[in-house]
Amino acid sequence: MRIVRTVDELRAALAERRAAGSRVGLVPTMGALHEGHLSLVRAARAENEAVVISVFVNPAQFDDASDLAAYPRQLERDAEIAAEAGVDLLFAPDAAEMYPEGFATVVHVEGALTETLEGAARGGSHFDGVATIVAKLLLAGLPDAAYFGRKDAQQLLVVQRMVADLRIPTRVVACPTSRDPDGLARSSRNARLSAEERLRALAIPRALDAAAAAAAAGERDAAALRALATETLRGAGIEAEYVALVRADSLAPLERLEDAALLAVAARVGEVRLIDNAVLRAAGGDPEPVHPDEEV
Ligand code: AMP
Q1: What residues flank ligand 1, with Cβ below 6 Å?
Q2: CA distance 13 to 103
Q3: For 70-92, what is each residue's pLDDT tens digit?
């Protein structure tokens, strides 16, 4: 595996691979690689001869300086993990490479996709930071496909919108949320949970499961479904930042569950902010997949 630090090096390395006929798959990450990231790498590996992973803790998407400072950084270990997973190229730029002196461009996706949920909780600049860095990464590598996780469902929608609007010639591939065997969604932030907090954090997947089970049993009232999830969290001493039932394509809030919708949760466990989501399906609802690419 090669490690490259600059956009120019990345382009030169990918030009070689393309000349040899390789398709290129990119997995953008903020590092502290875990099995969730590796599930994206495997998806990329299955469809491309060359797999690139980027590791960049993007300051522009952090609204909270202490969160940015506490974000785990372990590039050497990440390089070992990526190499072992069969990644060909690790792109690890520093902040000055991505945001050189005088940098003044922001990619802004308008509307509910960026203003609700994480946009409301973390401030409007969060998704500007995400859209700008993903646009830069895609334009730097021009991969055939880029792989994103459904754990960050809103981020995925923002990226899909941005790529479609800017006609960036990269296919955006959505990958299922990878979970630890006990149900907790894998996240770089989990490393910051104490053993006691990690146990309490299990209330998050439990809350999603409880709401999904109630939906499957016939509950369609959004307030009741949200209350069930909220109470499950409270039972573990977790006060949710939000528990929202929204359309899976537009994130528009729903009062009733028709067919299928997304239940999205954000909550702090101790100092660590976690997000998760699940598709809820109404009993007797349309069995059509909620995501066009969903495997059901
Ligand atoms: P991050 O490093 O947390 O910014 O995540 C980089 C990419 O990995 C994003 O597309 C995330 O959605 C994805 N990802 C992170 N955790 C998981 C997970 N548990 N399952 C699937 N994808 C994930």
Answers
A1: 29-30, 36-37, 39-40, 148-149, 151-152, 175, 177-178, 185-188
A2: 25
A3: 999 999 999 999 999 999 999 99
